[in-house]
Amino acid sequence: MRTRIKNIVMTPGVTTEAHIPFIDDAEILIDGQRIVYAGKKTEAPAFEAQQEIDGGGALAMPGLTNCHTHTPMTLLRSVGSDLTLEDWLHNAIFPLEKHLTDDTVKAGTDLGVMEMLRFGTTSFNDMYMHMDSEAVSVQETGMRALLGYGIVDFDESCSDFPPALELMEKWNHKANDRIRVSLAPHSETCTTKKLLDRVLDASLRYDLPIHIHISETQCDRDDSLKRQGLTPPKYLESIGMLERPVIAAHCVWLTDEEIALFAQKGVVIVHNPISNLKLASGVAPIAKMLKAGCKIALGTDGVASNNNLNLWEEMKLMPLLQKGTMLDPTVVSPAQTVAAATSTGAMALGYRDLGLLKAGNLADIILVDMDRCCPGNDRESDLVYTVQGTDVTMTMVDGKVLYHNGIYTTLQPELVKSRAKKEAEALFKRAEKAKSGANK
Amino acid sequence: MRTRIKNIVMTPGVTTEAHIPFIDDAEILIDGQRIVYAGKKTEAPAFEAQQEIDGGGALAMPGLTNCHTHTPMTLLRSVGSDLTLEDWLHNAIFPLEKHLTDDTVKAGTDLGVMEMLRFGTTSFNDMYMHMDSEAVSVQETGMRALLGYGIVDFDESCSDFPPALELMEKWNHKANDRIRVSLAPHSETCTTKKLLDRVLDASLRYDLPIHIHISETQCDRDDSLKRQGLTPPKYLESIGMLERPVIAAHCVWLTDEEIALFAQKGVVIVHNPISNLKLASGVAPIAKMLKAGCKIALGTDGVASNNNLNLWEEMKLMPLLQKGTMLDPTVVSPAQTVAAATSTGAMALGYRDLGLLKAGNLADIILVDMDRCCPGNDRESDLVYTVQGTDVTMTMVDGKVLYHNGIYTTLQPELVKSRAKKEAEALFKRAEKAKSGANK
Question: Nearest 5°: phi and psi at B59?
Answer without folding.
Answer: -90, 125
